Amino acid sequence: MTVRNTEPNRSEGFSLPRSSTRARVLMLGAVSALALGGAALNTSLVTLPAYAEAPLNQSIAPAGPASFADLVDRVKGAVVSVRVKTVQTASADEDGGPGMPQFGQGDPMERFFKQFGGRDRFQNKPQKGTSLGSGFIISADGYVVTNNHVVQNGSDVELVLDNGKTVGAKIVGTDKKTDLALLKIKESGTYPFVQFGTKTPRVGDWVVAVGNPFGLGGTVTAGIVSARGRDIGSGPYDDFLQIDAPVNRGNSGGPTFDATGQVVGVNTAIFSPSGGSVGIGFAIPADTARQVVSELKDKGVVSRGYIGVQIQPVTQDIADGLGLKDTKGALVAEAKGGPAADAGVKSGDVIIAVNGEKIDGPRELSRKIAGIGPDKKVELTYLRGGSEKTASVTLAK
User: Fold this and answer.
1) Half-sphere exposure (CA, 13 Å, Cβ side) for 180?
2) Of the candidates 180, 179, 230, which has an alpha carbon nearest to the alpha carbon of residue 203?
3) Which of 81, 131, 149, 238 does the annotation list as catalytic?
4) What secondary structure letter does DSSP report for 247?
């Protein structure tokens, strides 16, 4: 199985360690084993308790909201469909396409190339296409959030508003590491907008996704937050919400709302054996999106902090070898010529806190340092030889 971007006209995805064939075989094997095991264990019949039916006039409390219609009416005007004209050039060496032969001066084949139009006729030409995705307006003056992979290689961006009007947009900034992009509607006006939520959703909370799957704009689906803090191997700052609201290709960049109508995530990828939704989608959390979008609006780029060390998880074997109580923290595998090394951090140290806040592992350390930004001072707490030490580190870029 693969984790795929949800934008329809792009083929890139994130490969997971286990092959799709193996994953399918394991699932089918499990079903077969259960069926055979059930037949072999016991063939006797078991009488189940009778189902007590509620009287027809007795009301039963609903398990979920009666309707999402009011919520959708409130937020759908801020959701847009994104159309991007793209230009992609296949990789090629300096003198031609992949494997293009090289000939010396006077070689008969070199004369052949010149006679029939030169090497340009045989080189890979730029390919034009259209990328479809989703986005949402976050301010009355027309700033729009979407995914980086929706607009990358884009030469022209158009947005289709909820009322069917098409407007042009410019790319303000993009951030590949979090797969976010900020656009600005070119046409002046006052636009309906939505806001990022300030409350972190809990696992089990209702969510509603609105977007442009397969080019079908204005599509609404609902589900719950299935998990938090997912790492799907797409980058060093993975911290995704997992949702089971169906999202498909074209939902990329669209919003996931909580029950109050605030944006809790930006849809970016799905886990699927076929390319379609199987109920496992991933959204960039609002906290991450808010911070990145703010920097893109101010500077057009995102600047991240850097301490200059290579880190790895603390396994149980490492913890036992170093005499640690648990596997929390990030082991410094190498520290040379960076801010942390200048402050006294060495290979073999285990960083356990940043500015007094405990960290679980390497990814949390990376996210914290990146989020603080360059030229800021932080206090690292680390373990060395069973003793707890601190170092004041000025972050680099």
Assistant:
1) 29
2) 230
3) 149
4) -
Choose, from 162, 179, 244, 258, the residue flagged as catalytic.
179
Per-residue DSSP letter, 278: S
Tens of pLDDT, residue by residue, the chain (397 residues): 555 565 444 433 333 333 333 333 222 222 333 333 333 333 344 444 554 454 555 555 656 678 999 999 999 999 999 999 987 765 544 444 444 455 556 666 666 556 555 555 545 667 788 889 999 999 999 999 999 999 998 889 999 999 999 999 999 999 999 999 999 999 999 999 999 999 999 999 999 999 999 999 999 999 999 999 998 888 778 889 999 999 999 999 999 999 999 999 999 999 888 878 899 999 999 999 999 999 999 999 988 888 999 999 999 999 888 888 899 999 999 988 899 999 899 999 999 999 999 998 888 898 888 888 888 899 999 999 888 999 999 999 8
Residue 375 burial (10 A CB sphere; 0-12, 13-18, 19+) = exposed
Structure tokens, 172 = 């303000």
The DSSP-derived string for 58-101 is: S----SS-S-SHHHHHHHGGGEEEEEEEEEE----BTTBSTT--
149 is catalytic: yes
Q: State the CB neighbour count (10 A cutoff) for residue 161.
A: 18
Catalytic residue, from 252, 272, 277, 366: name it: 252
Query: Is 252 considered catalytic here?
Result: yes
Region at 204 (left for phi over 0; alpha for psi -120 to 50; beta for the rest): left
Task: Give the C-alpha distances (Å, rounded to integers) separating 330 from 221, 238, 347, 362.
Answer: 39, 16, 11, 5
pTM: 0.72
245 within 8 A of 209, measured Cβ to Cβ: yes
> Measured between alpha carbons, how far is 37 from 31 in angstroms, rounded to an integer?
10
What residues contact residue 63 under an 8 Å CB cut-off, 6+ apart?
A: none
Kindly provide the residue ranges of all beta strands, DSSP E only, lying in 263-386, ordered along the sequence: 263-272, 281-285, 309-313, 330-335, 350-354, 357-358, 377-384
Contact assessment for residue 381 and residue 352, using Cβ atoms and an 8 Å cutoff: yes
